[in-house]
Amino acid sequence: MGRTVPTFTMVVQQEMESWSKFRRGLRREDQDAFDDLFRAARLQLASSAYAARPIPFESIIMSMLIAQQRVIQELQRRLTVERPT
Amino acid sequence: MSIIHFTGWLFDLYPSAHGLTVWLVDGEGRKRRVSVPYVPSFYMHVADKEARRVASIISSFPFRVTLNRTTQKEIYSNEEWNVLRVNVYDTLQFKKVVQRLERHFPHYVFFNSDVPVQQLYLYNTGLFPLAFGKYHLSEDNELLSWELEDTYDAMKYTTPELSTMTIQNRPDVVSPKFRKTYQIEIGYDGTTYSIENEEPAEVLHALNHHLQRCDPDIIFTEYGDAVLMPMLTRLALQEDVTLLLNRDTSVGYFTTNETSYFAYGKIVHKDGAFELAGRWHLDIENSFMMGEAGLDGVVEIARLAQLPLQHQSRSTIGTALSSMQLSWAIRNNYLIPAKKREPEDFKSAATLLLADRGGLIFQPKMGYHEQVAELDFVSMYPSIMVEHNVSPETVNCRCCTKEVAREIVPELQYTICGKREGIVPSTLRTVVQKRALYKKEKKRLKKLGDLQWVLFDHRQNALKWMLVTCFGYLGYKNARFGRIEAHESVNAYSRDAILQAKEIAEEHGYQFIHAIVDCMWLKKEGATEADYERLAREVSEATDIEISLEGIYNWILFPASKMDPHIPTANRYVGWYTNDEIKIRGIEVRRRDTPKFIKRMQGEMLQILGEAKNVAEVEALVPAALAKAKEYVALLRSGKADPLELVVRRHISQEADQYANRSASAEVTKALEEAGIHLAAGEMIEYIILDSTGKKKPQKAKPLALYSLEDGYDIEKYTEMTLKAVETLLLPFGYNVEKLEQVFGIIRTKKTRKTTNLPRKQHALFGV
Question: Within a 10 A sphere around the Cβ of B649, how many other Cβ atoms?
Answer without folding.
Answer: 15
